[in-house]
């Protein structure tokens, strides 16, 4: 299958490993990955900070960029959540009904990585090998906006060598919340403290999730406290094999 | 022309922005413990009794649609309610705002010649600052709900819709009672049944000797003129049954179209709010019943900014709220900051969308941002209010700091021009703008780095890697 | 302009021309369902009510009350009462409050929630009767029991003063845990009448 990658601005700029892993994984599974270079950002930060008007060109850019593609994948639950649940609204509120309809059509073909693997490619065992103790944090937008359910866990359970440990109170927000982490830094930190405590309680070496943004937040805290626990994007684990481990 | 709730009266506006108020609360370890314990308890209870109902989602959908239907037909339903209450011997008053509602209630009490009223817990009367208005007129309001009593005796403010004293634990409540409750047994322990017993003894005589009561209402049925108050302790029954005069203050959005509709809300509310299959007591009355209960009944229908909420097609559904507080109990922000940080009687997620709309968003500009948009509130809401979407919608209306506006516009422009975007990516890396692990950033970004490291910029961006393959 | 007209005008302006009006889906459970009395008992007991399943109403009430004195509404039949009692013919608050208990019938009961509803009928009396005494004995017939809340709402008469009672008075105000016994009766006994075998 020919799959277009939406890398997301955060992964492209700060966490290329997650986007690279997505490419390597899909190619290993025998698919062709394309990367339309005119892509930048889905506009979620603008919409969620209250700058809907400024987000309009970014919505238009996303739609134009990916309209020709049959299937789009992004290694981010929150960006796909924004594409699926905000793009058409942004267009509609700007009076652009045509763009809204196009945005809906493209959003329907845009998948978060675990959705693509399980719902479209119908695969749970991607042949990965990752010999570490791992705990999984379900990010809020993957859980409550996209409703990915246990798809990421089903993928992780098939990874050879991986010891999956359950995260207590997993469904509580880690406190990132985009600009929330800056505008309400104290509250965000309090939420992060609890999330980190639960991660450390598991005894895992690695905390994984499907969103680079939340991992940047959790990882930033774990690193500041020198806990020795790493954050690794789900795509990187699924892309790992005996050859790369 | 719809009008917001007036300034200078009532409790819808905080005296400082949410982040500043939250900072204080976050530094209070006892508060944090109390909130975590209470919200964890209620989440467990509520989850268990909701799981017992095979048709919970169908009930939610019905509740949501009933509320939308109500809003669409509000003028007709309010006039019908007025007509039915009047036919049953009640008197209906209309209050355009808090000041008018306070004046109506104060005059009604003054006309009885009584100097004391007993009160059932009511968010609407807290919202309009009725107690202060009554005190100003020389009338003593006595809160009879246990948590409201704890708040009143502790010279405190409510911090939760359902349990106004949620920020207090049993030993703090014991301290307040020992300090402030006349005639309390000095041997009082912090055993909850004992604390409840102390409140029972303290209020008993007041219930039996007070001639006027003030209540709110959970529901007002347009079809029949029936009012309903949902409660637990029996203080509601006391207030609704024993006095000669009953004055009920009800927000206009609390009307429900038909008697049959109660079958939906009486299932949704207790399970979502106190985590019970049914709350201990629900009282329903229609006007005046000769020989049973108050023989003078007044219903005050309150706008106070509700029509301004109604005018916003996206924000309107905040009026669907049945005040169950489930969204507070699941909110990770509320659980850590408590209710006082929100500066309004309506705290938590619903408060963050309701208060700014009642007052005008510029008067509560920080509230729409008091959320990580995690979505737990939307899932918990028994009438399916999409709080996260309303928060985002209100952020779009809120006044923005000039520097932020400039930065966001520039970012959007850059992101819409891939060449500029790539240049910015390279500049960020070259300038090591982030400094050592993110320390030394300009405000507000330094808030991030106070407790979190920022990642080192990678050696190459994804698109550089892609090109070089 | 009166405040009524002002508010109604504000609402109409806020709603605009044709506010969209949804269909209300009623696909939650609404029909008559079988009544499970064992479950009713379980639900009542769960909220600290005491349940007596008996064909002997007067004996059971006597057992609960002993030599105490109860108040009763006008319509409670004499044959229930093998105890000292005062009938309510306009008793004062103090007389009611001084009683050791109150005996009433009920209008309807709900299995799923463990609720009994009083509708101020002749055998249930004024609302104050079942409120002030510390002990409430409520006599319930099996044919008054329905499975669910919608069935109860359908059976009740809206204009009457209604009191829905689920267990003794309680509060969740201390640390959000339910504690029984605040202002209403602290002891609720349900006498569930069984047909004599």
CATH superfamily placement of chain C? NagB/RpiA/CoA transferase-like
Mean pLDDT of chain C: 95
Write down the overall geometry of chain B. Answer: globular
Radius of gyration of chain C from CA coordinates: 21 Å
Instruction: Work out the helix count of chain C.
Output: 5
Distance between the termini of chain B: 62 Å
Largest sheet of chain B: 6 strands, parallel
Tell me which CATH architecture of the largest domain in chain B applies here. Answer: 3-Layer(aba) Sandwich
**CATH top level class name of the largest domain in chain B:** Alpha Beta
> What is the CATH architecture assignment of chain C?
3-Layer(aba) Sandwich
Query: Order of strands across the biggest sheet of chain C?
Result: 1-12-7-4-2-3
Based on helices, strands and strand pairing, what is the structural class of chain B? alpha/beta
GO molecular function (chain A): oxidoreductase activity
Protein name (chain A): L-lactate dehydrogenase complex protein LldE
Pfam families (chain A): CCG (PF02754)
InterPro entries (chain A): Cys_rich_dom
Descriptive labels:
heterotrimer, B: 469 residues, Rossmann fold, 2 domains, 22 helices, 48% helix, C: 197 residues, alpha/beta, six-stranded parallel sheet, four-stranded mixed sheet, 12 strands, globular
Question: What do you see in this structure?
Answer:
The complex is a heterotrimer of chains A (245), B (469) and C (197). Chain A is 53% helix and 11% strand. By secondary structure, chain A is of the alpha/beta class. Chain A has two domains: 2-120, no CATH class; 133-239, Rossmann fold, CATH 3.40.50. In chain A, the strands form two sheets. A four-stranded parallel beta sheet of chain A has the order 2-1-3-4, sandwiched between helices. Chain A has a four-stranded parallel beta sheet with strand order 6-5-7-8, with helices on both faces. The model of chain A has no long low-confidence stretch (mean pLDDT 97). Chain B is built from 22 helices and ten strands. Chain B has two domains: 18-307, NagB/RpiA/CoA transferase-like (Rossmann fold, 3-Layer(aba) Sandwich); 404-468, no CATH class. Chain B is of the alpha/beta class. Chain B has helices at residues 18-26, 29-51, 56-72, 74-87, 98-112, 123-128, 130-136, 146-153, 170-180, 192-209, 235-241, 262-273, 306-310, 326-330, 332-337, 348-359, 376-380, 387-395, 402-415, 418-431, 446-449, 462-467, and strands at residues 91-95, 116-119, 140-143, 212-215, 219-221, 226-231, 245-251, 255-256, 281-286, 296-302. Chain C has one domain: NagB/RpiA/CoA transferase-like (Rossmann fold), CATH 3.40.50. Chain C is built from five helices and twelve strands. In chain C, β10 (170-171) and β11 form a beta hairpin. The model of chain C has no long low-confidence stretch (mean pLDDT 95). At the B-C interface, α2, α3, α4, α8 and α10 of B face α1, α4, α5, β9 and β10 of C. β9 (281-286) of chain B pairs antiparallel with β9 (162-165) of chain C. Chain A: GO terms for molecular function: oxidoreductase activity. Chain A: This is L-lactate dehydrogenase complex protein LldE. Chain A: One of its GO terms (cellular component) is cytosol. Chain A: InterPro entries: Cys_rich_dom (IPR004017).
């Amino acid at each position: 299958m020919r799959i277009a990658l939406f890398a997301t601005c955060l992964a492209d700029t700060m966490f290329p490993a997650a986007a690279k892993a997505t490419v390597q994984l899909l190619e290993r599974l025998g698919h062709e990955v394309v990367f339309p270079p005119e892509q930048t950002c889905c506009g979620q930060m603008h919409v969620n900070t209250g700058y809907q008007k400024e987000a309009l060109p970014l919505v238009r850019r996303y739609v134009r960029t990916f309209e020709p593609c049959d299937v789009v994948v992004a290694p981010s639950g929150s960006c796909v959540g924004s594409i699926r649940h905000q793009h058409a609204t942004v267009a509609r509120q700007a009076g652009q009904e045509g763009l809204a309809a196009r945005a809906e059509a493209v959003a329907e073909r845009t998948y978060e990585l675990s959705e693509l693997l399980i719902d479209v490619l119908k695969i749970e065992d991607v042949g990965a090998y990752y010999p570490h103790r791992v705990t999984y944090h379900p990010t809020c937008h993957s859980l409550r906006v996209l409703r990915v359910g246990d798809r990421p866990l089903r993928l992780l359970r098939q990874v050879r060598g991986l010891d999956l440990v359950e995260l207590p109170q997993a469904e509580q927000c880690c406190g990132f919340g985009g600009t929330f982490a800056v505008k309400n830094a104290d509250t965000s930190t309090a939420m992060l403290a609890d999330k980190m405590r639960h991660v450390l309680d598991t005894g895992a070496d690695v905390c994984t999730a499907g969103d680079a943004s939340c991992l940047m937040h959790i990882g930033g805290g774990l690193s500041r406290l020198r806990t020795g626990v790493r954050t690794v994007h789900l795509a990187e684990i699924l892309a790992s094999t005996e050859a790369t481990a | 022309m719809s009008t917001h709730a007036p300034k200078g009266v009532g409790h819808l506006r905080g005296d400082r922005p949410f982040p500043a108020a939250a900072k204080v609360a976050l530094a209070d370890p006892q508060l944090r413990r109390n909130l975590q314990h209470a919200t964890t308890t209620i989440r467990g209870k509520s989850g268990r009794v909701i799981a017992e109902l095979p048709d919970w989602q169908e009930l939610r959908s019905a509740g949501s649609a009933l509320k939308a239907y109500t809003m669409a037909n509000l003028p007709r339903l309010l006039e019908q309610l007025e007509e039915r209450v009047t036919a049953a011997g009640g008197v209906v008053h209309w209050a355009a705002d808090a000041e008018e509602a306070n004046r109506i209630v104060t005059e009604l009490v003054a006309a009885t010649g009584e100097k004391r009223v007993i009160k059932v817990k009511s968010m609407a009367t807290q919202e309009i600052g009725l107690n202060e208005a009554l005190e100003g007129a020389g009338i003593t309001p006595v809160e009879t709900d246990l948590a409201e009593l704890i708040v009143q005796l502790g010279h405190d403010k409510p911090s939760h819709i359902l349990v106004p004293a949620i920020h207090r634990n049993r030993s703090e409540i014991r301290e307040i009672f020992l300090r402030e409750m006349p005639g309390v047994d000095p041997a009082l322990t912090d055993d909850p049944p004992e604390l409840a017993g102390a409140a029972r003894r303290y209020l008993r005589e007041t219930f039996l000797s007070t001639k006027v009561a003030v209540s709110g209402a959970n529901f007002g049925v347009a079809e029949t003129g029936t009012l309903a108050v949902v409660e637990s302790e029996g203080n509601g029954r006391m207030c609704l049954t024993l006095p000669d005069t009953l004055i009920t203050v009800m927000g206009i959005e609390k009307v429900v179209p038909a008697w049959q509709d109660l079958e939906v809300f009486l299932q949704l509310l207790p399970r979502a709010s106190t985590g019970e299959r049914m709350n201990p007591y629900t009282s329903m009355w229609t006007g005046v019943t000769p020989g049973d209960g108050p023989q003078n009944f007044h219903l005050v229908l309150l706008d106070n900014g509700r029509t301004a909420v109604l005018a916003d097609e996206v924000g309107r559904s905040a009026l669907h709220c049945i005040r169950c507080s489930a969204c507070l109990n699941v909110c990770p922000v509320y659980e850590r900051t408590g209710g006082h940080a929100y500066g309004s009687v309506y705290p938590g997620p619903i408060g963050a969308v309701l208060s700014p709309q009642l007052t005008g968003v510029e008067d509560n500009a920080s509230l729409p941002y008091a959320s990580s948009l995690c979505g737990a509130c939307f899932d918990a809401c028994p009438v399916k209010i999409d709080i996260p979407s309303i928060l985002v919608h209100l952020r779009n209306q809120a006044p923005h700091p000039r520097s932020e506006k400039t930065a966001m516009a520039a970012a959007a422009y850059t992101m819409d021009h891939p060449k500029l975007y790539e240049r910015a990516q390279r500049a960020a890396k070259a300038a090591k703008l982030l400094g050592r692990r993110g320390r030394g950033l300009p405000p507000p970004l330094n808030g991030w780095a106070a407790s979190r490291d920022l990642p080192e910029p990678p050696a190459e961006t994804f698109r550089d890697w892609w090109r070089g393959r | 302009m009166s405040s009524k007209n002002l508010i109604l005008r504000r609402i109409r302006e806020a709603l605009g021309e044709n506010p969209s009006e949804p269909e209300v889906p009623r696909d939650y459970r609404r029909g008559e369902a079988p009544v499970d009395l064992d479950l009713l008992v379980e639900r009542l007991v769960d909220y600290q009510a005491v349940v007596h399943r008996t064909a002997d109403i007067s004996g059971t009430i006597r057992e609960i009350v002993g030599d105490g004195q109860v108040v009763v509404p006008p319509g409670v039949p004499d044959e229930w009462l093998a105890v000292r009692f005062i009938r309510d013919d306009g008793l004062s608050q103090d007389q009611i409050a001084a009683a050791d208990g109150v005996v009433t019938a009920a209008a309807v009961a709900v299995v799923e929630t463990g609720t009994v509803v009083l509708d101020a009928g002749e055998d249930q009396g004024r609302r104050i009767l079942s409120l002030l005494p510390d002990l409430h004995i409520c006599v319930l017939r099996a044919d008054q029991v329905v499975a669910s809340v919608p069935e109860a709402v359908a059976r009740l008469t809206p204009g009457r003063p209604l009191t829905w009672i689920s267990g003794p008075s309680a509060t969740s105000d201390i640390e959000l845990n339910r504690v029984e016994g605040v202002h209403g009766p602290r002891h609720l006994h349900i006498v569930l009448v069984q047909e004599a075998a």
